[in-house]
C-alpha cells in the first residue's frame, strides 16, 4: 500500500491540485514574460542597486531574458511547455522586476498584446509587483481582464514582515505599504499572492514563524510563495557573503522549518511554491546539489513522514 503522497495527496494545500481541479484536469502552465520593467529602488525613484539579495536574471529563464518581443517570448514559451510538459492551457506571467511600474495606458498595451496570443488557450494573467506600485487605477485595469473571463493573480512581494529587515535589504518600501495595498484590493475580484523570503541572517526562527500570523490575518490572501534566501552573483548580498559568510539554510534545516511553519498557516491558503531556484551559474549559496523535482520530492516526503498538516495548529487556535 502506498502513502497519500503516492496518490498525489500532499500534506498542504498545493497549487498543482488547485489548478487541476479548477481547470477540470487540463495541464496548465505559466509562461514567464519579461516586459522590460525596472523597479523604483533601481532607477533612483526610491533608491539604486535594487534589493540587496536580488539579481533579477538569476530567477528569470534564459528564454525570457533573450526574447526580443513579448510575442516571441510567449510563442516560444508555449511551444516549450507543450513539448516538454504536454501543457494544454496557459497563464501569462509577468514576473521579472515590477510589472505595474509604468503608466496605466502603457500597462494596458503590454497586457493586451500578451493576451492576444493564442487567446483560446490562455486562462489567466499573473502580474508580479511591489505593494508600493499598486493604485486604484491599476487595480481597475487588472479587474477589467476578469471581465474577459480570465483569472487574474496579483503577486506582491512581502519578503519580510519586519521593517528593520526591509530597510537592511534596501527594499524601498515598508510593511505598512503592503497592508495598504491589501486593503485596496480587499473587495476586488483579483486573486492575491504574497511572496516571502526566509533566512535573512538577523531574523531568528521565532521571527520567521510569525510570518504565518501576518499572512493569516488578511483573508484576501489566496496564494503564497515561500522561498528560502539565495545568495547570487551580481547582488549586494552576494558581495557581503563573499566578504563575511553567514549561515544559510541547508535543505534539512529548511525542511525542518517548513514542517513547523506550514501547520501555523491558514488551511485555505494555496501554496504556489515551497522553495525557490536560482540559476546555478549565478548561485553562490546555498547549493543543495539537487534538481527542482528532487528538492520537491525530498521536502514532500519529509513533511509526510513527520505528519505535517497545513493549518493544524492554526485551527487549534481559532
Structure overview:
With 318 residues, this protein is an alpha/beta fold. Helices cover 37% and strands 17% of the residues. Helix 5 links the parallel strand 3 (122-129) and strand 4. Helix 10 (251-261) crosses helix 11 (292-305). The radius of gyration is 19 Å and the shape is globular. The two termini are 35 Å apart. The mean pLDDT is 92.
Which keywords apply here?
two-stranded antiparallel sheet; 318 residues; alpha/beta; 37% helix
Major sheet: size, sense and barrel closure?
Answer: 7 strands, parallel
Question: N- to C-terminal separation?
Answer: 35 Å
Mean pLDDT: 92
Strand content: 15-25%
* H-E string: HEHHEHEHEHHEHEEHHEEHH
Helix percentage: 25-40%
Specify the overall morphology.
globular
Structural class: alpha/beta
Number of helices: 12
How large is the radius of gyration? 19 Å
Low-confidence stretches: none
- For the largest sheet, list the strands in their spatial order: 1-2-3-4-5-6-8
* Topology, number of strands: 9
Summarize it:
By secondary structure, the protein is α/β, with parallel strands linked by helices. It contains 12 helices and 9 strands.
Give the topology.
Layout: H1 15-22, E1 28-33, H2 62-66, H3 70-85, E2 89-94, H4 104-115, E3 122-129, H5 136-146, E4 151-159, H6 163-168, H7 175-184, E5 191-198, H8 205-216, E6 221-228, E7 231-232, H9 236-243, H10 251-261, E8 270-273, E9 283-285, H11 292-305, H12 312-317
Parallel strand pairs: 1-2, 2-3, 3-4, 4-5, 5-6, 6-8
Antiparallel strand pairs: 7-9
Helix pairs in contact: 10-11
Amino acid at each position: 500500500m502506498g502513502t497519500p503522497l503516492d496518490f498525489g495527496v500532499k500534506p498542504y494545500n498545493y497549487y498543482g491540485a488547485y489548478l487541476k481541479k479548477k481547470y477540470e484536469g487540463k495541464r496548465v502552465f505559466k509562461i514567464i514574460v519579461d516586459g522590460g520593467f525596472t523597479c523604483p529602488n533601481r532607477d533612483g525613484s526610491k533608491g539604486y542597486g535594487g534589493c540587496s539579495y536580488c539579481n533579477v536574471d538569476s530567477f528569470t529563464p534564459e528564454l525570457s531574458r533573450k526574447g526580443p518581443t513579448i510575442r516571441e517570448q510567449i510563442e516560444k514559451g508555449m511551444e516549450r511547455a507543450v513539448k516538454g510538459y504536454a501543457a494544454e492551457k496557459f497563464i501569462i506571467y509577468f514576473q521579472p522586476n515590477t510589472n505595474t511600474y509604468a503608466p496605466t495606458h502603457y500597462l494596458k498595451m503590454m497586457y493586451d498584446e500578451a493576451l492576444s496570443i493564442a487567446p483560446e488557450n490562455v486562462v489567466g494573467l499573473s502580474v508580479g509587483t511591489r505593494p508600493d506600485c499598486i493604485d486604484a487605477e491599476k487595480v481597475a485595469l487588472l479587474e477589467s481582464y476578469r471581465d474577459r473571463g480570465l483569472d487574474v493573480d496579483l503577486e506582491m512581494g512581502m519578503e519580510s514582515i519586519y521593517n528593520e529587515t526591509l530597510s537592511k535589504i534596501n527594499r524601498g518600501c515598508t510593511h505598512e505599504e503592503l497592508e495598504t495595498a491589501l486593503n485596496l484590493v480587499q473587495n476586488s475580484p483579483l486573486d492575491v499572492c504574497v511572496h516571502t523570503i526566509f533566512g535573512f541572517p538577523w531574523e531568528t526562527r521565532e521571527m520567521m514563524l510569525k510570518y504565518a500570523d501576518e499572512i493569516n490575518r488578511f483573508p484576501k490572501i489566496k496564494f503564497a510563495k515561500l522561498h528560502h534566501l539565495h545568495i547570487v552573483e551580481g547582488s549586494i548580498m552576494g558581495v557581503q557573503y563573499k566578504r563575511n559568510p553567514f549561515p544559510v539554510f541547508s535543505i534539512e534545516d529548511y525542511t525542518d522549518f517548513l514542517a513547523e511553519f506550514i501547520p501555523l498557516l491558514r488551511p485555505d491558503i494555496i501554496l504556489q511554491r515551497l522553495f525557490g531556484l536560482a540559476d546555478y551559474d549565478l548561485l553562490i549559496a546555498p547549493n543543495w546539489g539537487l534538481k527542482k523535482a528532487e528538492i520537491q520530492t525530498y521536502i514532500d516526503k519529509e513533511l509526510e513522514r513527520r505528519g505535517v498538516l497545513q493549518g493544524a495548529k492554526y485551527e487549534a487556535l481559532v
